[in-house]
Write a structure and sequence with these properties.
Elements lengths: L1 H11 L14 E9 L15 E9 L5 E10 L5 E13 L4 E11 L13 E11 L2 E8 L9 E10 L4 E11 L6 H6 L6 E10 L2 E8 L13 E11 L1
Antiparallel strand pairs: 1-2, 1-12, 2-3, 3-4, 4-5, 5-6, 6-7, 7-8, 8-9, 9-10, 10-11, 11-12
Protein name: Outer membrane protein beta-barrel domain-containing protein
Keywords: Signal
Amino acid sequence: MMRNCLQKMALVAVLPSLLISPLASADFSGSVGLTNSYLPRGITASDDKLSLSAGVHYSNPKNGAFAGVKAHTLGGESPYTQYDTYVGMTKPLSEKASVDIGVLSYQWPDNKAATDTRPSHGEELFLTGRYGMADASVYHFINTPLMKGSTYVRAGVKKPLKNGITVGANVGHNSYGDSEEMKPLKAFGVFEDYNHYQVSAAWKDLTLAVGAADIDNTWLKATTDPTVTLTWEKNFGF
């Protein structure tokens, strides 16, 4: 188990030379959170059950490098934990604009249902652009027999208000690839491409969000009915 975890960490460490600058120039932060349903891409990954999260983030202001790991508890008939490990770099383009590029690894080491088509890990390349209060991202799966070639794109905007509340809106599109393992599942309707929408309001450590997807899919646990989530997340520095 430990050897597999080390191999997965090595796979995502594609920018090691950027991460070995003196620690004195680095910033470390952490977070802990709780939500009534974890919705990473507009549909529940925690079976609409409570999800705990905790993470650590590293950033180097001198060269723009960043890395981190965040864990989420996922409910359902066989609860397990998802670990999101990422590494990348930020490139400022102007006072208002910047670009992030990197690799993100999803790991489910205790997922008892893992198979060749439902693996214990998966990796994506990601690109994020920001301008002022708006941002957009693209994520593309680069491995695993089932998900290879799948792409997720999203765009969002946030607006701080005078009363300390920040309002936001997001839209996303998830498209599944055409791997040999995916084709029959798409043909039977197990996986379907979909769009999702969300509006939110945040105050201090609390975020209230309302969203929906444009499909009803039992396998994906997606619904066109509005989904309301309340999330508490506390960020802190080291």
